[in-house]
Amino acid sequence: xxxxxxxxxxxxxxxxxxxxxxxxxxxxxxxxxxxxxxxxxxxxxxxxxxxxxxxxxxxxxxxxxxxxxxxxxxxxxxxxxxxxxxxxxxxxxxxxxxxxxxxxxxxxxxxxxxxxxxxxxxxxxxxxxxxxxxxxxxxxxxxxxxxxx
Length: 149
Known about the structure:
Blueprint: E1 3-7, E2 10-14, H1 16-23, E3 45-47, H2 50-58, E4 64-69, H3 74-89, E5 94-99, H4 104-109, E6 117-122, E7 125-131, H5 136-145
Parallel strand pairs: 3-5, 4-5
Antiparallel strand pairs: 1-2, 4-6, 6-7
Helix pairs in contact: 3-5
């Protein structure tokens, strides 16, 4: 371990490779409630508990787009950095992020086997899923294809 950083309330050891990726802007940036929003000013919910997910995502009337991510994943960093633009491009949906390190049971419940995984929920059910990084325009087209706009 070369360095330590705080992820949520947890100290994480970083090896040389991870430290270089963090410095290069490849890893997911630290995310906290209230500090993460779309380019249009709409908030991106930071899900911290399973109960919060169940009430705020599965219990919502509007379409919900949830990004399951890992702070140490380089592809997740790309998705998280594009998310403010994606939020602004898609006013018909609400957006949330779930750190699979902090909520592994939630990731397992939704069969998240790789990150980043983005799942669109409508009426409390999964409507669409995509794994990996893509452009903001590609995310928006994916949402439109699955009835969100």
